[in-house]
Amino acid sequence: MTYRAATIASVGAAARTEEYAAPELEPGAALLHTLFAEVCGTDVHLRDGRLAGVPYPLIPGHVAVGVIAAHRGVLRDIHGQAFNDGDVVTFLDVHETCNNCYECLVTKQTTRCPHRKVYGITYGAHDGLLGGWSEAIWMKPGVKLLRMPQGVEPAAFIGGGCGLVTAVHAMDRAEIKLGQSVVVLGAGPVGQSIVALSSLSGAGDVIAIGGPQNRLSFAQRMGATATIGLEMPPAERAAIVRERTRGRGADVVIEASGAPDAVSQALDLVRDGGRVVVCGQYTDRGATSINPHLQINKKHVEIRGCWGSDYSHFYRALELVARFGSKVPWRELAVKHYPLDEANDALDAVASQEVIKAIITPNL
Amino acid sequence: MTYRAATIASVGAAARTEEYAAPELEPGAALLHTLFAEVCGTDVHLRDGRLAGVPYPLIPGHVAVGVIAAHRGVLRDIHGQAFNDGDVVTFLDVHETCNNCYECLVTKQTTRCPHRKVYGITYGAHDGLLGGWSEAIWMKPGVKLLRMPQGVEPAAFIGGGCGLVTAVHAMDRAEIKLGQSVVVLGAGPVGQSIVALSSLSGAGDVIAIGGPQNRLSFAQRMGATATIGLEMPPAERAAIVRERTRGRGADVVIEASGAPDAVSQALDLVRDGGRVVVCGQYTDRGATSINPHLQINKKHVEIRGCWGSDYSHFYRALELVARFGSKVPWRELAVKHYPLDEANDALDAVASQEVIKAIITPNL
Amino acid sequence: MTYRAATIASVGAAARTEEYAAPELEPGAALLHTLFAEVCGTDVHLRDGRLAGVPYPLIPGHVAVGVIAAHRGVLRDIHGQAFNDGDVVTFLDVHETCNNCYECLVTKQTTRCPHRKVYGITYGAHDGLLGGWSEAIWMKPGVKLLRMPQGVEPAAFIGGGCGLVTAVHAMDRAEIKLGQSVVVLGAGPVGQSIVALSSLSGAGDVIAIGGPQNRLSFAQRMGATATIGLEMPPAERAAIVRERTRGRGADVVIEASGAPDAVSQALDLVRDGGRVVVCGQYTDRGATSINPHLQINKKHVEIRGCWGSDYSHFYRALELVARFGSKVPWRELAVKHYPLDEANDALDAVASQEVIKAIITPNL
Amino acid sequence: MTYRAATIASVGAAARTEEYAAPELEPGAALLHTLFAEVCGTDVHLRDGRLAGVPYPLIPGHVAVGVIAAHRGVLRDIHGQAFNDGDVVTFLDVHETCNNCYECLVTKQTTRCPHRKVYGITYGAHDGLLGGWSEAIWMKPGVKLLRMPQGVEPAAFIGGGCGLVTAVHAMDRAEIKLGQSVVVLGAGPVGQSIVALSSLSGAGDVIAIGGPQNRLSFAQRMGATATIGLEMPPAERAAIVRERTRGRGADVVIEASGAPDAVSQALDLVRDGGRVVVCGQYTDRGATSINPHLQINKKHVEIRGCWGSDYSHFYRALELVARFGSKVPWRELAVKHYPLDEANDALDAVASQEVIKAIITPNL
Questions:
Q1: Are residues A22 and A3 in contact, defined by beta-carbon separation less than 8 angstroms?
Q2: What are the CA-CA distances from residue D51 to residues D56, D122, D279, D282, D349 (Å)?
Q3: Phi-psi region of A244 (alpha: psi -120 to 50; beta: other; left: phi over 0)
Q4: CB-CB under 8 Å, C79 with B102
Q5: What is the model's pLDDT at position A52?
Q6: Closest Cα of chain B to A203: distance in Å?
Q7: In this model, does residue A339 exceed pLDDT 90?
Q8: Residue numbers of D between 221 and 250 with CB closer than 8 Å to C
Q9: How many A-B residue pairs are in contact by the CB < 8 A criterion?
Q10: Comparing C-alpha atoms, which of D245, D311, D246, D281 is closest to residue D104?
Q11: Which residue, A166, A193, C289, D30, has fewest beta-carbon neighbours within 10 Å?
């Protein structure tokens, strides 16, 4: 038995469909037949070689939804309920968080365990069918499966996808209070979900800054009360934010753009004593210039980095889609679906910002 | 009746002793006869013109201790006890915090009220005897006086002075947990008190980085468990901190140096998920370069600016000297006392780092 | 010139309309012509003598909306904008918070200043027109006026009234995270607004427990996802909450009922490691029995008292009505309006729970 | 090969020494030769049957220090360093925290995992040599071993023992700020370590309330600045605390006594807006009466339950003994050592409060 998977052979190589042998399932393992796997900005970085330590050849696709096709032994969800073949599930892409190191046990930095491995990113094709752009995905023992909650359509969850999960974590770090003003920098998948979650949290004003125009329009559907395009110079953007906040700046600014200068701009946009969350800097794109007197010390501001996501963010993301999926157009974040053989087209569409997000449907 | 006060006429001018008429006391006002007034780094900046919006001519000296020589009406401390002539007091140098603006009432940024005035900094000599380098200081109605607690020698409190008060605020922002490792950048008056307060807070390792050597030696007396001089390149300093923290970096790094690059270095010294407090950037000395991916986002770190101080920090500083004054050599932070006519020598001694802090004794 | 005001002469006395001389306005003072004044549970307690230290005779009505009829000197809002005659305003009912005591300055307990006075509660009729059940209300110098924001109808704000303001404070204490389950105990004005604000905050499940049925029905309009009546025994209520939370109890329980036993019940309803906010115990109605092992220690739970409100809660309440007033039926919380002479009917309607809230319209 | 272990056969039975077969070590397992095992209040409760769900017969002793006598496979500490036979270690008494349930993964209540098992408490003698009152203790695979840090004498660590570890957790919950006043209720092993850690944290006043007199005297050696005996009525104790805190009550009160009424008393002793930590209620000793209006709501107080301890508390306890062991007389908390055959004498000495803590030395 073999499965087909889109594979990036090396940095810069186009994705090609390859055949892989089905894994032998050890006790505690399972096999998913993939329904949807996402194509996100990280995948473009992977193709372009902007992440360190990636074991090419690679089967990309870190967040996916599938159907359990086989499993060995009893696998249970966190409520103790057993999984059965046929169940529709997603899974925590981060595996092997060790629960035995200083970060796991003492500082409790759940996303900074040095032993963690990530499906589709730090597991390579030589390790097996461990990426979502594949007809089947091998759930190694210990991978944390999550059942789609009642009422959650897989296509809506995958529309939110890793951006939604990251956004849940960013919201925890942002601690927005009811009625506070929020600026979101970046209108990609992460920024879109942050806009939606800020709005659901009762933020007072939710200003999305980014581009291009179709993304800003979509941000309004996600709950943005105002949008500002990048064609406007940063000083003018800041002037608009100040005007909307009585000259003070926003209570909370969340950076989800990936551009180093956005961090410096965030500090210009936040009010005295406000909070900046930095969750968009997933690859090393260089440095930015910050004036510590004017932008940090005198402002008495708080800045919080936000790395990755843990099980709780996946779990709560599913719960949020179950509760608010009818209000928030997550499904429409990813309208373009691609078969395996068109994975390159999907990557190009994401890279060119033609789409906000693309979806691979390996079994359609 | 007149009083003599050391006055800086304009940017760059030497301090000269001038005569000023005694103020007429309105109800709620008082007059202090000055015992000790401090000379801190801010005063050097004032002479050199590195602060904006200073109304020269200026009588410097924002933190001082004096004896109530006269008062009008009943003045009470926060416990309701009346002040009497002869009482030894200090006072909150920040006046006119309005308790009526957005910062005071809504965001509760107690040090960011735009209406605040500071004795010796934003009050000028034309406003009256409103600086500590004077035989007498005019306590305007509403200025918050604080009685020296029993057992606190004025010379010990003024040794800590504004640096101690700033350090109390920085400790609130740092939230050090028992046993955590702390790095303090800067060995001036603020850094020295942060070292002492970190040690009193039960920090596990307290590493002071700064210079010159006499300051580092003093930091050890304040409680530093290790010191590193600036003659060592930043990368080697970081290597030492990592070695002392099992390769991880410090739990908390507190920047109290004033050098913009120290903020970037602080981010290199802190562990994943740790905290950086920035309280040393009191004047605009330019920008630093920060890599948001490596230094903020991936580290999942928290950075907190810390501006100024409010009444609680003064009050608690006095309580801390009352409780711990016998253990911590605050008094010896300022061994050199200068009469009014030698205020320039005091400034020079501070500017050249010959002393950590200088004290003006206008009535000796 | 005189004004009519409904007055409670002594404990248990019926409200009677009396005539009072217009106040002479000192600089900084103003006179409001009352549009709406509320009748809340506290007013029933005042009539029945369940609050200590009330200086009868009393003009009740602590939260009100009015039009500035006269003022002396320049009065400004927190943004610096001057008030004019004709402006529609409300005001912080708490006055004389001293900004000079241990609570104000050191522990920063903004609602625990011992010097605070409250319009309609701790100011008596002998002090002047200092309650809302009056044709005119005297704004003493220093009283903090708040302008109705654009788009806020006075009737909607007064519908929320003091219950909404208290709810804003309770939400700060509750720190609900997106998607968390919330139980609200009590379906009076405070509970209703807590339901609404929980829903606006993105809570996942918002269960209102209280009565009578009309209030529970209203709670659903405010955003409750489920309601439970008090006719059901506490153990059965707890069973329902557990069933809706996979056997675990709610993430956050907010007590807004005033019944001492509700605090003990709240501890039974909250999950391990969850949070209970106690904001309904405004008068001393006796003790409850709590098992510290089972209900506090082993549950690892957090309990937070929440007393009164400060300026920020008023300010933010107005902002929230401005932003969400079209979604939340605050106006309909108080559909029954009463002229001054029918103040007793209003009290009776509140006491009998015939209405959730009553409004006095002294000038209609 | 057999080992001797003191065993409680059933509720109320005296401890008797029994012989047990040595365990066969699976991969990841180890065998400790016991140096010291503690006798704490929980052990008295176990003998007296005051804990539910205990699988008698039982080998008590949840915290112990031993020497690795044998192990199978490579066992590593959290820094990755392998353990060797001959290493002196302690171990986290809580085992089988699942890292796979709602509490572990979503609410992150590290001490509330329902799957946890505790050596000497919820493992019974039928499960094997899983208690410290034994010549040897079986470290099952996955038990988290901790190496004695350099400079830590086992006798000093075991003197602190489970009380110290609990105290570290309680301090995390208490978040004492430098200079704050602390009241500690209870002068047993937990209370003693809380006194010491409060003092090390820079608390301003540390008042121990408890008994008998020898424990209060010891509390002074641990850092208490004042002690109050239980022979004084609660109202007088409260008067003393108020007198020492200018009439306000303590900033933080930590209950470590186990008496239900102590929780109510704690609420009387804390200042408005202060914090109460409840960590002493380890068995169900019934209810207490609390007035929610006077003791919670109006006080605007915060109450935090604190259950058990996790790996971080053990790890940090060891680090604290390494750093502060020379200043704090933990070793003298447990001066009486008993051989296995005298385990009943040890229990009696603890039950009668003749000693603060007793130690079993099975191999002496």
A1: yes
A2: 11, 10, 16, 9, 20
A3: alpha
A4: yes
A5: 86
A6: 15
A7: yes
A8: 246, 248
A9: 142
A10: D311
A11: C289
For D246-279, b where at least 16 C-beta lie within 10 A, e where not — what string?
Answer: eebbbbbbbbbbbbbbbbbbbbbbbbbbbbbbbb
**pTM given for the model:** 0.98
Number of C-beta neighbours around residue D2 at 10 A: 11
pLDDT tens digits, one per residue of A138-147: 999 999 999 9
Instruction: Look at residue C335 and tell me whether its pLDDT is greater than 90.
Output: no
DSSP code of residue C124:
-
The minimal CB distance from A179 to the residues C79, C175, C323 is found for: C323
The yes-or-no verdict on residue B53 having pLDDT over 90 is no
Residue ranges with strand state E in chain C: 2-8, 15-21, 30-39, 64-71, 88-91, 94-95, 117-118, 136-139, 145-147, 181-185, 205-210, 226-229, 250-255, 270-278, 288-290, 302-305, 336-338, 358-360
Question: Three-state DSSP class for D47?
Answer: helix
3-state SS track over chain A: CEEEEEEECCCCCCEEEEEEECCCCCCCCEEEEEEEEEECHHHHHHHHCCCCCCCCCECCCCCEEEEEEEECCCCECCCCCECCCCCEEEECCEECCCCCCHHHHCCCCCCCCCCCEECCCCCCHHHCCCCCCECEEEECCCCCEEECCCCCCHHHHHHHHHHHHHHHHHHHHHCCCCCCEEEEECCCHHHHHHHHHHHHCCCCEEEEEECCHHHHHHHHHHCCCEEEECCCCHHHHHHHHHHHCCCCCEEEEEECCCCHHHHHHHHHHEEEEEEEEECCCCCCCCCEEECHHHHHHCCCCEEEECCCCCHHHHHHHHHHHHHHCCCCCCHHHHCEEECHHHHHHHHHHHHCCCCCCEEECCCC
Which two three-digit tokens encode residue D69? 């006598």
ipTM attached to this prediction? 0.97
What tokens appear for A154 in the block? 């897989």
Q: Which residues on adjacent β-strands are paired with residue D65?
A: D36, D90
Q: Which residue of B has its CA nearest to C106?
A: B312
Distance CA A238, CA A266 (A): 9
Could you tell me what percentage of chain D is helix, strand and coil, using 3-state DSSP and rounding each to the nearest 5? 30, 25, 40
Q: Once rounded to an integer, what is the mean pLDDT over residues A82-106?
A: 97
Determine phi and psi for D32, rounding to 5 degrees: -105, 140
What token pair was written down for C19? 């005539």
| Neighbour tally for B287: CB within 10 Å | 19
pLDDT at position B104 is 97
pLDDT in tens, C185-210: 999 999 999 999 999 999 999 999 99
Give the ranges where chain B is alpha helix by DSSP (H).
41-48, 102-105, 154-174, 189-200, 213-222, 234-244, 260-269, 311-324, 343-351
* Contact (CB<8Å) D311/A106: yes
Chain C: list its partners (3+ Cβ pairs within 8 Å): A, B, D
d(CA B175, CA B275): 9
Q: Please compute the mean of the pLDDT values over residues D120-129 and round it to a whole number.
A: 97
Could you tell me which of D279, D239, D29, D206 has the C-alpha nearest to residue D129?
Answer: D29
Residue C55 near residue C127 (C-beta atoms within 8 A): yes
pLDDT confidence band for C328 (50 / 70 / 90): very high
Cα dihedral: A18, A22, A27, A28 (round 10): 40
Contacts of D324 in chain B (CB under 8 A): 202
pLDDT in tens, D326-351: 999 999 999 899 999 999 999 999 99
Gap between the Cα atoms of A10 and B209, Å rounded: 45
* pLDDT at D161 (0 to 100): 96
- List chain C residues with CB under 8 Å of D251: 107
Which tokens hold the place of B167? 């350090």
Give the position of tokens 């209406």.
B115
